[in-house]
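3.2 Worked example (two chains)
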Amino acid sequence: MTAEATPALVEDEQRTPGPRARKGSAYPRYLAGKVAGAAVSLLAVLVTSFFLFRLIPGDPVKTMTGGRQVSAQQLAAYREEFGLDLPLWRQFTDYCGKALTGDFGTSYQFRAPVVDKITEALPNTLLLTGTAFVLYTALGIFLGTRSAWRRGGLGDRVNTGLALTLYSIPSFWLGLLLIIVLSVGIGPLPGMFPTGGMESGGEEGFAHVLDVAHHLVLPVVTLVAVEYGQTLLVTRSALLDEMGSDYLTTARAKGLRDDLVRRRHAVPNALLPTVTLIFINLGRTVAGVILVETVFSWPGLGGLFYQALSVPDLPLVQGLFFVFAAAVILMNTLADLVYPLLDPRVAR
């Protein structure tokens, strides 16, 4: 190599970013792309929520009158009050303009702001689905790791078979079955739990907490039984993919116990797909489970959505649908942003 070429090579290396610089600039671009995608998805949900529920047959104004005989003038007054007399394009622009400021309108049946009804029911949904989320996530990860590490054994076959069976059962059917057996009672077995609702009423202090917990048992058991299987199967599959890796063979060759190899090496790497699933389920926690809340008469967002859909209460249905979809989109985006921190190869 000539002396004249050396300065040129040095200058080229100074201009070319190294691996560290490329890594530092990759994540901001990745972040911007994911945030932009989430924003577009939210706008699409906003548009879809307006047109989708207007395909539902029925007249909300006639439903609100409860079948009573009302004059054409009264019906026209109702439609004018809720803006249903406006052209569809005008209703759409008004809805989008208000929704972007957090105003989803006024509920037809409750005559209250949609945001207030959602805020009122949200804590009840978070109590139910949040409790179930913690339980079925912990149970699914624990049983999934043990099943994978003892692949083909009796415990693996029982856990996998039970998870697949419960995961395929409709949640409302299982909820009804639990009500019949454990609430109403069957044969010599007396009913031990309430048939529905969140509280019996008249209790205060710690007695009220116990009363709510008593009502919480059956819906939580239903959700855990149906949902834990998905986490178990994803965790098991991811861990099985890791078990043949060279780094685990090296760890065993160094004399590490199998339990230590599993906890310190295999499980942390295998949990990457499970992390994505956890965030997705966390988004669904806000949405709640409509059928379970309806079966157990739980006063949450799912039960509120069912009530609104039966009218149809268009502002309330649209607002709830947007909240449900936004929760899932935001949690998916958050999972996408956390994933590169766990595995830097994702953002490259």
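3.2.1 Second chain
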Amino acid sequence: MTLKNIFLFLCVSFLTYPIYGQTNCNCPQALKQLISKIETEYPGFPEKVKQHNDLYQAKKSILNKKSLNAKNEACVALLQEYLDFFQDEHIVLRSLTVAQKKVSETTASPAEPVEEVMAKAINPEVFYIKIGSFAYENIALVKDLIAKHTEQIEHSKGLIIDIRNNGGGTDDVYQPILPYVLTNPIRIMSVEFFATHTLVNGLRDYALKNIKQGLDSIAEAKKIEDDLKEYKDNIGKFVLYGDKKVLIDTIALHKKSPTQVIILANRNVASSGENFLFSCRQSKKVKIMGTPSMGALDYGSIREFKFGCDNYQLFLPTYRSARLPQYPIDNIGVQPDIYLDESIPDWVDYAVHYIQE
């Protein structure tokens, strides 16, 4: 198994492991150890603190004092306040004790499921596709949708792709759509992984679990260690994935496709949802309509990082985009070509009229 396959898996899922309650930290201890983990293993720490170090140090001092008397929910809020300084949606902290308590107290019935993937012909000229999530389980759904409606898509004048509230997932979900959307090869920025023992051990554990027992297992294990050597030799440093910062992706385009493509996006579009916008906006026939996206794309491929407190789970990104620091997206978002304000109640209707004008 190559590192490429391992990284592809990491990009679409959390690699979580059972938590055994061995060390439950009080609030001052949890904050101290959380700070240490962020400062040494979060790939965005140097860049995000560089120009705001005085503010960061003051924030730490205030929170350390507050932590002395904080318990339970108050401590969770305090730890989250510290993490909020970095304004990174890919940093996730979970309190296992508070979460369990809330689950046991919840008696409300589950909400009605929302259809995340659907398509329809709005009229003979305009076809509409909605993808509310790029979650891994939607790969097959989108493939089937495209196969089922190929003729309608090819013969439509305009295609509307609605990804509002799409918080991301895996880029594999939207690949079947690109041949109908793009007009030319696209530039894709690579990523730089921040080499840590957590990353190396996690990659090794995952790879070893997928080795088939047999005569070749020892050789495969050695191959895994060889693949990890660059990361093991550069702990605490960034390692470029691949040998180029910029990749040119030449996608085979369909001979028949819509002449206009509208993508609807709002503030809740994030992560791989924003990757989709980045790719599509390079097409000469695409217009992005809506509002700026969330801005959660600079750091990614999250996994669990232990920080010595078994009453909490911490998930951190493991890479930064090679766009940085010249072209940050976090908390800025991908900007629309046409901004739709609150005076436009029906975005789909607006897009239809835009195509037919």
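3.3 Remarks
The two ends are 52 Å apart (CA to CA).
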